[in-house]
Amino acid sequence: MDEIAVLIPCYNESKTIAKVISDFAHYLPRAAIYIYDNNSSDGTDKIAIEALKENGITKGGVKYEHQQGKGNVLRRMFREIDAKCYILVDGDDTYPAEFAKEMTDYVLSKNADMVVGDRLSSTYLKENKRPFHNMGNILVCNIINFIFKSKIKDIMTGYRAFSYQFVKTFPVLSQGFEIETEMSIHAIDKNMAVENCVIEYRDRPEGSFSKLNTYSDGVKVLRTIFRLFRIYRPLQFFSTIAVILFAISLVFFIPVLLDFFKTHIVAKFPTLIVCGFTMIAAIQSFFSGLILHTIAVKGKQEFEMRLIHTSEEFKTKH
């Protein structure tokens, strides 16, 4: 088992990967560095192999994940690598390696399960040249913190540190860049110890291009939030739907009721029938949320038992 494992998912990062490896070898000299190439066509893997040799790195290496998407790469990484502490960083040289030591200390010395590299509190909004991308990051952060009552400062950051327990109990479901959102919500829901570490951010160097699409990937992230809200907070989700349906039913029922008091005749039978069905749907939605909430609580209890088993496994491997 490695003391610290640096995980670098890469897709066409030939311009920057050598510098990223060199920087992390300097600031974390005893760490194992793993580069996972995700179908790069620009020789990223060959450059990474040479950079590992030049920096005298014997622990780690270059591995491959052929299913496209960052989520698929992380799934492979988390399955294959055992370490006391993991550092996840992009291969685009936007995250300075000098903050890695502070982030790993949170995990190794303060028992944090996930450390978030917070760009939004420092240089990100100034360095990033895509205003809609900046706005999207802030919007996603505020939505999640509001829905899940959390205090994570940067939901979409690609610079994080993890404990062994987090990595081995995190079910990776997303395939692409929405994986960061999934990790954040998982940590919040499972009451894991989360720390924010303010880091600097620098824009990509000339010749290096982002694989993120502000709009299409933004839609995927919002869909992920919606899906995870339904999964992790079913009572709140379905209660909200129930309240909306109840309000719609009530709004259309009141005029029918007032007419009945005046004339003692129900003149709008179709409206009354629709109101009845809408009210039934509201009741069904509420009880669906209640049942799913009970299942979710049971799932959390089972997760705690799994966490105990993972901790015992960690002690055995350690």
Helix content: 55-70%
Strand content: 5-15%
Q: What's the helix-strand series?
A: EHEHEHEHEHHEHHEHHH
- Give Rg in angstroms: 24 Å
Distance between the termini: 7 Å
The biggest beta sheet, please? 7 strands, mixed
Integer average pLDDT: 88
Structural class: alpha/beta
How would you characterize the overall build of this protein?
There is one protein chain. With 318 residues, this protein is of the alpha/beta class. 56% of the residues lie in helices and 13% in strands. It has eleven helices and seven strands. It has a seven-stranded mixed sheet with strand order 3-2-1-4-6-5-7, sandwiched between helices. α1 runs parallel beside α2 and α9 crosses α10. The longest helix has 49 residues. The chain starts with a strand and ends with a helix.
Keywords, separated by commas or semicolons:
318 residues; alpha/beta; 7-stranded mixed β-sheet; 11 helices; 7 strands; elongated
Write the layout of secondary structure elements.
Elements: E1 2-10, H1 17-27, E2 32-37, H2 44-54, E3 60-64, H3 70-80, E4 83-88, H4 100-110, E5 114-118, H5 124-127, H6 131-148, E6 160-163, H7 164-169, H8 179-189, E7 194-198, H9 216-232, H10 234-263, H11 269-317
Parallel strand pairs: 1-2, 1-4, 2-3, 5-7
Antiparallel strand pairs: 4-6, 5-6
In short:
The chain is 56% helix and 13% strand. It is of the alpha/beta class.
